[in-house]
């Protein structure tokens, strides 16, 4: 492809490919696809997307085609691979200058340079890193930023390579540029701090962006660029400096207004500092030993004392809790039963942990977790009132503990309580003792504290096995609290039924189950407890959410069908009513799961009560056409229904046969989700 004659033609076709008219768009895309394997095509694309006078959309498309071409044709062994001569020209052209004015295009160029570097750097492209290092030193703001952005993407890509030879190359690269990366980060960080102090927000925002990028580079180099980083003084110096910088940035956050252009980027930088520590701990736990004391002091100070008031934000709290959790739970810091088999690093880490987690420290962490972090927030209570289905789904599913505050703090509590249960058990039992008897329904704070304490007792159920007589507590306290009908007592009723669900597989006498079934049925059917349908659903859903754990736990060998049968009709009817009333797919799936387990438990004895469900499932199947996971739940329910109905299931064949046909038809996309259950139903 001759560059001079081809550039005009390719530019014209790219312009057509940005059209909204499919009659123009489709032929252009076909032509571009044909050119993908033509020699010289990517040189033309390079000339087009580096020409800043052309239309942005055309340049954007040229970058994307170039990037996709790297994936398909850059490697020597690829079919229709680019020639070495053209690749050499392209490599030189990509790093001729870093002056792309459009952010989105600049990012794509950086990514495609990193893709080339993954294959060619450093052997075929030794000049890449030196060029980037020199370019980030220039005074021109735009060129400096674009070079730093590319430096980050290249570092990130090279750090991700896992073959031994590639790892060795990255170690060598890191040793050659680490000092420069540290000085670059320090320079931009100091510049930002000076500018924010003088109130120059526009300049500070630019410096903060460079601080963030240089820190991202250092994160990859520090975590992946050394075999034994604790022997490198610069690495350990940087990691210790992270704590000081974190304090400086947290103090900055006090002065930066919420609407400031720096605010969002400032919080991202603070989180990135914590990610450096978390990643280093994850990859190099032994090297992290020297940082354990400082990490614990820093995290506990900001999360569990007044030092963090006014400066911490939710994601920062999550990161600090994750740091504490990873240190507490890290197997590299736990000595073997035979001390002589433990490494010196393990013994040293264990010694540091033991010295830090004294009784006063553990007690304060436990109390603060339970009486501060565990409390339901106004936002959560409002969500429960306004959208109980979403609240229930979030409570039972939720996000990963690494990213969301509530699951994160609960996991931290479980891990600390497990590790230091002899110390913390008396602390938690004292909290329980102080809450004996019913709570004043007018005292919202007292209700929320009781909810939080009961939450803690449920999370620590296995650790408290020998310390709590749960049967007596159920009879003397919890059962009475389930019967308090005031609307403001709703959080306690919800929490008590959850608490029983946590304990039933730990310690709960079989003889008490009929009393429990009765209490649950009352919760499910008493619509007069509340005034609005949303409130009713809030109680109803929360009861059903824990119904399975309480009444029908999967590993429950003490379940007796004869105890449950007197409640079967009413429970099944109430569950079916809920299945019809709820609207969210996740909620319907959960209720169907409970119904399936009920049918499985009682088997043939379900026959008198399933007529309404049998009539409703075809409608639900039709409504769930776009929700394959809900259809999986329907299939599971049908499997148990067929088993329970026995020969009577023939009446379902007009519905079952098309369902089986769709589920087992491998030419239909849903079979990926439905095939296994469909075959079992068949």
What is the number of E strands? 0
Count up the helices: 31
Unreliable segments (pLDDT under 50, ≥5 consecutive)? Answer: 527-545
Distance N terminus to C terminus? 59 Å
| Biggest β-sheet description | none
Shape: globular
Computed over alpha carbons, the radius of gyration is: 31 Å
Kindly report the average pLDDT value.
87
Structural class: mainly alpha
In short:
Helices cover 71% and strands 0% of the residues. With 682 residues, the protein is mainly α.
Question: How would you describe the overall organization of this protein?
Answer:
There is one protein chain. This protein is mainly alpha-helical. Among the domains are: 1-160, Alpha Horseshoe (Leucine-rich Repeat Variant), CATH 1.25.10; 162-168 and 176-334. Helix content is 71%, strand content 0%. The protein has helices at residues 3-17, 22-35, 41-49, 56-73, 84-94, 103-120, 128-135, 141-159, 164-198, 201-224, 233-255, 263-283, 292-304, 314-329, 344-356, 359-373, 378-386, 388-396, 405-419, 421-433, 444-459, 470-482, 490-503, 513-525, 533-551, 561-581, 585-602, 611-623, 628-645, 653-664, 671-681. Helix 24 packs antiparallel against helix 25 and helix 29 packs parallel to helix 31. The protein is globular. It starts with a helix and ends with a helix. It holds the Pfam family IBN_N.
């Amino acid at each position: 492809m001759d560059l001079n004659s081809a550039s005009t033609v390719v530019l014209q076709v790219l312009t057509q490919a940005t059209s909204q008219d499919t009659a123009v768009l489709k032929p252009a895309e076909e032509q571009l696809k044909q050119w993908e394997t033509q020699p010289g095509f990517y040189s033309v694309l390079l000339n087009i997307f580096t020409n800043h006078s052309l239309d942005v959309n055309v340049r954007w498309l040229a970058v994307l085609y170039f990037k996709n071409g790297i994936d398909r044709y850059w490697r020597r062994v690829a079919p229709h691979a680019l020639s070495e001569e053209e690749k050499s020209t392209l490599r030189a052209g990509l790093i001729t200058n870093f002056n792309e004015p459009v952010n989105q295009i600049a990012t794509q160029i950086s990514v495609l340079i990193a893709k080339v570097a993954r294959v060619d750097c450093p052997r075929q492209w030794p000049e890449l890193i030196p060029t980037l290092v020199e370019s980030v030193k220039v005074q021109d703001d735009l060129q400096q930023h674009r070079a730093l952005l590319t430096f980050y993407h290249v570092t990130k890509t090279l750090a991700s390579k896992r073959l031994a030879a590639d790892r060795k190359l990255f170690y060598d690269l890191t040793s050659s540029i680490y000092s420069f990366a540290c000085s670059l980060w320090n320079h931009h960080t100091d510049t930002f701090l000076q500018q924010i102090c003088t109130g120059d927000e526009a300049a500070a925002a630019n410096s903060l962006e460079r601080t963030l990028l240089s820190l991202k580079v250092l994160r990859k180099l520090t975590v992946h660029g050394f075999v034994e980083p604790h022997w490198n003084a610069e690495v350990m110096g940087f990691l210790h400096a992270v704590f000081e910088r974190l304090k400086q940035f947290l103090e900055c956050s006090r002065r930066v207004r919420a609407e400031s252009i720096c605010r969002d980027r400032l919080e991202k930088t603070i989180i990135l500092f914590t990610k450096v520590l978390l990643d280093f701990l994850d990859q190099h736990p032994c090297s992290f030993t020297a940082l354990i004391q400082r990490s614990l002091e820093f995290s506990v100070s900001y999360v569990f004392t007044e030092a963090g008031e006014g400066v911490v934000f939710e994601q920062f709290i999550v990161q600090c809790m994750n740091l504490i959790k990873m240190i507490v739970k890290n197997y590299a810091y736990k000595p073997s039963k035979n001390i002589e088999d433990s490494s010196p690093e393990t013994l040293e880490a264990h010694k540091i942990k033991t010295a830090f987690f004294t009784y006063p420290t553990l007690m304060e962490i436990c109390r603060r977790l339970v009486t501060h972090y565990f409390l339901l927030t106004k936002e959560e209570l409002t969500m429960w009132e306004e959208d109980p289905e979403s609240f229930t789904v979030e409570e039972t599913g939720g996000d990963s503990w690494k990213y969301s505050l509530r699951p994160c703090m609960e996991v931290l509590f479980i891990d600390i309580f497990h590790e230091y249960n002899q110390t913390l058990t008396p602390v938690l039992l004292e909290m329980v003792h102080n809450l004996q008897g019913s709570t004043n329904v007018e005292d919202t704070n007292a209700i929320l504290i009781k909810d939080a304490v009961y939450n803690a007792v449920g999370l620590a159920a296995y650790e408290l096995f020998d310390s709590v007589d749960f049967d007596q507590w159920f009879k003397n306290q919890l059962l009475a609290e389930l019967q308090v009908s005031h609307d403001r007592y709703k959080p306690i009723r919800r929490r008590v039924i959850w608490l029983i669900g946590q304990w039933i597989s730990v310690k709960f006498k079989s003889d008490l189950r009929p009393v429990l079934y009765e209490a649950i049925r009352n919760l499910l059917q008493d619509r007069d407890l509340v005034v609005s349908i949303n409130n009713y659903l809030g109680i109803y859903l929360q009861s059903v959410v824990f119904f399975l754990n309480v009444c029908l736990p999967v590993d429950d060998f003490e379940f007796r069908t004869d105890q449950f049968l007197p409640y079967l009709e009413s429970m099944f009817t109430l569950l079916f009513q809920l299945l019809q009333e709820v609207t969210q797919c996740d909620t319907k799936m959960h209720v169907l799961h409970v119904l399936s387990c009920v049918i499985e438990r009682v088997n043939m004895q379900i026959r008198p009560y399933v007529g309404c469900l049998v009539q409703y499932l075809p409608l639900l199947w039709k409504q769930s056409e776009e929700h394959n996971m809900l259809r999986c739940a329907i299939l599971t329910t049908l499997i148990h229904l067929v088993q329970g109905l026995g020969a009577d299931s023939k009446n379902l064949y007009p519905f079952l046969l098309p369902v089986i046909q769709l589920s087992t038809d491998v030419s239909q996309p849903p079979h990926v989700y439905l095939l296994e259950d469909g075959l079992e139903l068949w």
